[in-house]
Design brief:
By secondary structure, the chain is an alpha/beta fold. The chain has one domain: Rossmann fold (3-Layer(aba) Sandwich). 38% of the residues lie in helices and 12% in strands. It contains 8 helices and 7 strands. Strands 1-3-2-4-5-6-7 form a 7-stranded mixed β-sheet, with helices on both faces. Helix 7 links the parallel strand 6 and strand 7. Helix 2 crosses helix 3. The protein is globular and about 50 Å long.
Length: 269
């Protein structure tokens, strides 16, 4: 299976810590820092890739959409001969944040630090209602393509943010080359846990960590309280967010988010 990605090299070449960005479920490699080039301009080599079944990457086999496999994929990316970076900073949104946590718990010596954007998993099995919602999205995508997905997604969003969120969703779903595989991922991933035993398991993370929270009004799928709990449980972690609940989430502000990540990476040195 081939994972598609790109490397943004600093110009001129710099000595900043390498950064690997990992997107959320149904997103793609451009939707972590939303096209911002600020990290490369700040001297950081940036590796961006599409997760299996997402974007331009190949689909996985049935049953392969789970966090242990996503960590395997991450390790394959950073060890690939054409990339081969040592101890990168892992920057992940949602599914990507969970992958970063799972990777840090498995092999902490392989990584320098974590930036966890919009984490949602609390290390506990999701509710039946939550799983039913993911299954509706998968059914909508499988039966009706982009329009079917949007019809199912529309049921779950705040009317205040409806127009913007539907536009973003339409753009990201249209970018996937294997929609049936993506539908399978939508069913399988929510049933996989990046860590077990509840939030207390995060206390074993030994890497410097920055947690990016979003207020629930715009982004209820990534609860503010969960991000706060991550920051309180991971030793030494720091929490940042947008300025207030009526603001566009920091996770959506590519330039500002990139500058926060660059400042965090610089502080490690």
């Amino acid at each position: 299976m081939t994972l598609r990605g790109v490397i943004e090299a600093p110009k001129p070449p710099g000595a900043g810590a390498p950064i690997v960005t990992m997107h959320g479920v149904t997103a793609h490699r451009d939707l972590v820092v939303h096209g911002s080039t600020a990290l490369a301009r700040a001297a950081h080599p940036v590796i961006r890739y599409d997760a299996r079944a997402h974007g331009e990457s190949d689909p996985g086999r049935p049953g392969s959409y789970n966090y242990p496999t996503l960590v395997d994929d991450l390790e394959a990316i950073i060890e690939a001969p054409e990339i081969r970076v040592e101890r990168p900073v892992l920057v992940g949104h949602s599914m990507g944040a969970h992958t970063a946590v799972a990777a840090a718990l498995r092999n902490p010596e392989h990584y320098r630090a974590l930036v966890l954007i919009g984490p949602a998993s609390r290390g506990e099995p999701p509710s039946a209602d939550s799983l039913a919602g993911w299954d509706r999205l998968a059914d909508g995508l499988e039966r009706g393509g982009v329009e079917g997905f949007l019809a199912a997604y529309d049921r779950a969003i705040d009317p205040m943010w409806r127009t913007k969120l539907l536009r973003i969703a339409a753009d990201r779903i249209a970018r996937h080359h294997h929609p049936k595989a993506l539908a399978a991922a939508l069913r399988e991933l929510p049933r996989s846990l990046p860590f077990e035993g509840g939030l207390g398991a995060l206390g074993a993370i030994t890497l410097p960590t920055l947690v990016v929270a979003s207020y629930d009004e715009a982004d209820p799928g990534h609860p503010y309280a969960t991000a706060v709990a991550y920051a309180e449980t991971i030793p030494g972690a720091r929490l940042i967010s947008e300025d207030g609940p009526d603001q566009s989430p920091l996770a959506w502000q590519g330039g500002r988010l990139s500058r926060e990540i660059a400042a965090f990476a610089t502080s490690l040195e």
